[in-house]
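User: When convenient, might I ask for sequence and structure tokens for a protein?

AI:
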Amino acid sequence: MSPAVYGRIERGGMMPSVPALRRLAVALGVSPAVLLDMSAREMPTTDKDLSPEIRKAVGILRTWSESKVAVGCALLRVLDAAPIREE
């Protein structure tokens, strides 16, 4: 993996492919789930496990085209990086 690609992954600019994620996990001696910062308790198993607001968002997303989902994801990444001001 080139340093530029690794840097983009590290900064959240791209996700590694599944084989690349596995190679990274093996090299670091951790589970791929650790690299993705996932745990069983954080991952809902069904829609009913989601909060009402997330269920609404998922319902809307299911009606969108792939290109519209891509734009929505880009917007979410911008919002995720923005600090939240408490009022």
Remarks:
- The mean pLDDT is 81.
- The chain has five helices and no strands.
